Amino acid sequence: MKQSQGLANVPDEVRTGLRSAGLILSSSVSVSVLTEGLSNQNYLIRDGDSSWVLRVNSTASSQICDRNAEVSNWKIAAEQGLAPGLYFVSDDKKYYLSDYIEQEEGQSWGSLITAKSAHPLIDDSVPWPGAESALLDMLTQITRLECPENSLSVSRQWSIYQASLYDIWSRIGNKPSQGQVCQEHKAWREKHLQLLSLRSDISQWLDELDACALGEQYSHRDLNPHNLLFQNGRLMCIDFEYACSSHPLFDLAGVLSSHALSTEQRHFLIDSYLDNHPKLTLDAKAALPAAINIYWVFAACWSLLMAADAETETDIEIAEVFGLQREPGSHHGSKYLDCFSQFYSLILP
């Protein structure tokens, strides 16, 4: 947690919006940096015994997600107790205020973050006993949520990513550059070509996924440990930027790709989730490696999109809105290119 500031540092737009929602902050309110993510920023607002999270969305992330769908899908999950309550959304979707879910000391689900390919090594270590049961309960509840209005198949998502990346290729190819910018453009093109070299494999994986799905379901699409909160023995989700109605195997793939679980925990989670799943065929287990590969393909696409937008990012340094310091250059394009390299290394043709 970083240093805090008072009421004067809360943007006027936020204070006005909260007043209209019936929430008036007192003069004793404090604001502190909660997390510094790769895209958006989160701040903890404390006022007496009440605490909220204020998220400030970046322009770069807003360009590659549908904020209206995000808010709608967040509310669907919150109504069923799978997400913090959402109190306020600014008209321009730049600011969100939600419940702050206090984490028990030593019980941060984010500690399980890892990066695993479709064929991980045997692992007997159990960093969080019972994690598989908590994950299964959450995934099962997600399958029962109302399907979002924004439907997006994995094949359609790949097509959208391809079109966006080709547009960026053309844009930077026609733009004069020099120095560091020129080097970043060159690195971006090289990494894009790396991704394109997998096109035939990607098509095969998408075919496998299409063949095992009997329908769509609510899909969060990014259930890594940093997007999960553990309280009172159960999990809640945050960050619904990419939530949609999509493939019923994708969220399981995201969990397996990003969680430090023992081999036994993984097998329990896979078998229990797939057992009699109403929207998956019996071939779904065999298609799971394809789903994990596609998870990392989409992560690689995301990192290239964010890297391209980083150099032209027009956001005010978000922490400065609150008079708080943050590390310089934390949104530089090179950081996203480094992410690409990690994600790409996890794709197994």
TrEMBL record:
Gene3D superfamilies: 3.90.1200.10, Phosphorylase Kinase, domain 1. GO terms for molecular function: transferase activity. Keywords: Transferase. Pfam families: APH (PF01636). SUPFAM superfamilies: Protein kinase-like (PK-like) (SSF56112). It comes from the Bacteria. Residues 31-279 form the Aminoglycoside phosphotransferase domain. InterPro entries: Aminoglycoside_PTrfase, CcrZ_PhaseVar_Mediator, Kinase-like_dom_sf. This is Phosphotransferase family protein.
